[in-house]
Amino acid sequence: MGFALLNLPYGMQRMDTAVKTRTTKKPATKARQDLRSWIAQLRAAGELQDIKGAEREQEIGGIVDIYQRRIGNKAVLFDDVPGFPRGHRILANILTSVRRINITLGLDPDASAVELVHYWRRYMKEAKAIAPVTVKSGPVMDNVCNGKDIDIFKVPVPRWHEHDGGYYIGTGDMVIMRDPDTGWINYGAYRVQAHERNVATVMCSTGKHGDLIKRRYHERGEPCPIAVVCGMHPALFMIAGLEIPYGRNEYDAAGGLIGEPIEVIAGPRTGLPIPAHAEIAFEGFIHPNDLRDEGPLGEWTGYYAGGLKKEPAIRIETFMHRDDPILLGAIPGIPPDDDSFYRGTYRSGAVWNQLEAAGVPEVKGVWAHAAGGSRLWLTVAIKQQYAGHAKQAGLIASQCHAGAYANRFVVVVDDDIDPADTDKVVWAMCTRFDPRDGMEILRGCWSTVLDPMVYGTDDPRNARVVIDACKPFKRRDTFPVVVRASKEVEDHVRAKFSDVLPK
User: Fold this and answer.
1) Is the separation of the CB atoms in 130 and 12 below 8 Å?
2) pLDDT averaged over every residue in the chain
3) Which one of 1.10.10.1800, 3.40.190.10, 3.30.70.1350, 3.40.1670.10 gives the CATH number of domain 341-488?
């Protein structure tokens, strides 16, 4: 998972891909696995905005764009989409608030961002793998379509951004595949564009697990089975976005996250495990050399950096959905956005754990900044113990697995700086950083073709900067005193004047 699952010393046992089978006549709704139960929780918490009558070509995407511009705005549920039956809904802006992430994970809704990071740290170290169970049926099979009855455009798939090259049914999704050699099940969050009633494309960056599995089938001259889920409990979607290592089952991790086995059905054509309580799912095959024009899509960097490319086509053979299906959207865009904000809290915990695993002492905080899509900017706070401590922390944070991909800046600050407070981080950079010897530039690092700085090139590598914004170690005791009330004074005035002071 980029964290504990990467380094199994943290106690996560090897995940078994085997699943148990049981039968039910009519499966009851599993609240922890059902999107509609989650929506009900949001509604009760005042975290949901209903919007009716927005059309899918411009208005839905435009509304989501406005909602995503500020962290903490409500989730939005669209209904009465023109041209579609009432009840065929779209849910977006799902995880752009710490409160909604807390609800998803079953935490106190009012837990702080810091508490959430510590939750992820504990989860990485202590969570147990819980294998899924196979059931014979579930709500996702309310409507099962084959042959000429398949039409993925029965769902009101929007054009999320004005200049997108088409309609993306898969943004808040799970793309499920099986390794042909080991039988290992992998699912990840890869973008899926809808082209025709029974044709979609999937974009898996080179080296991602989905790409590796697809290539194994095609090297044998065989089609690659694939299933796509486009509406599910957000806890399952969150797992899809984590860096779980090759060979480990995301369903096991999802079960450990929610504390119970994920109920799955076997896809009628592929046999791939599909969440029984999903809203929308389809399955089919990717045939060798079967490519379609894909994109562009406004991506998590805030740019159209991917362009129009050839991507693998999915020939759909089964389309399933619940009555009155709900499409889940996690829309990339100018960060912070729904595609990346939720990842920042667990990536912060992941980098923190990996720094400690590498032997870096006295790490006091890590924050993956939302403005960098939770990847491009990391801040690490330490309590300096020795000369070179800050540089050590910065270099390791820039290259550990959880922090390496597409990173551009790592800033190391003292423990009096809240790494999540951008103003304080910038202040530390302005007053404690000397560009002459406080900066390291690393070249040829792991990045992505979605980086706008490498757009149009054939080299997806990048350079990154490690900045030491700590007080100079030799001067840490003689550095000018910070103009701020001491803890003792602050505690005194807060106790005496608590009724008039801001929280």
Assistant:
1) no
2) 91
3) 3.40.1670.10
The encoded tokens of residue 299 equal 């991506």
- Provide the token pair at 400: 């550990």
- In 3D space, the residue among 310, 275, 276 whose CA is nearest the CA of residue 295 turns out to be 310
Task: Give yes or no for a contact between 413 and 431, defined as CB atoms under 8 angstroms apart.
Answer: no
The Cβ-side half-sphere exposure at 466, using a 13 Å CA radius, reads 21
345: tokens are 């809290």
d(CA 328, CA 230): 6
Q: What is the pLDDT of residues 379-422, one digit of tens each?
A: 999 999 999 999 999 999 999 999 999 999 999 999 999 999 99
For domain 8-328, is the CATH number 3.90.1150.10?
Answer: no
Q: Determine the Cα–Cα distance for residues 345 and 111; give it in Å rounded to an integer.
A: 13
CA distances 149 to 153, 229, 266, 325, 455, Å, are: 11, 18, 20, 16, 40
Between strands 89-92 and 326-328, the pairing is parallel
Return phi, psi of residue 427, to 5°. -60, -45
> What percent of the residues of the chain are helix, what percent strand, and what percent coil, each to the nearest 5?
30, 25, 45
Q: How large is the C-alpha radius of gyration of the chain?
A: 23
* Cβ–Cβ < 8 Å for 162, 117: no
Rounded to whole angstroms, the Cα distance separating 3 from 354 reads 7
Name 398's Cβ contacts closer than 8 Å, sequence gap at least 6. 378, 404, 407, 410, 442, 445, 464, 466
> Cα 481 to the chain's mean position, in Å?
41
The SS3 call for residue 148 is helix
Q: Residue ranges of the chain with pLDDT lower than 70?
A: 1-29
Please give the sequence-ordered ranges of beta strands (E in DSSP) within 322-438, or none if there are none.
326-328, 363-368, 377-382, 409-414
Where does 26-129 have alpha helices with state H? 35-44, 59-67, 98-105, 113-126
Q: Where are the domains of the chain?
A: 8-328, 341-488
CA distance 421 to 436: 25
Separation of alpha carbons 487 and 491, rounded Å: 6
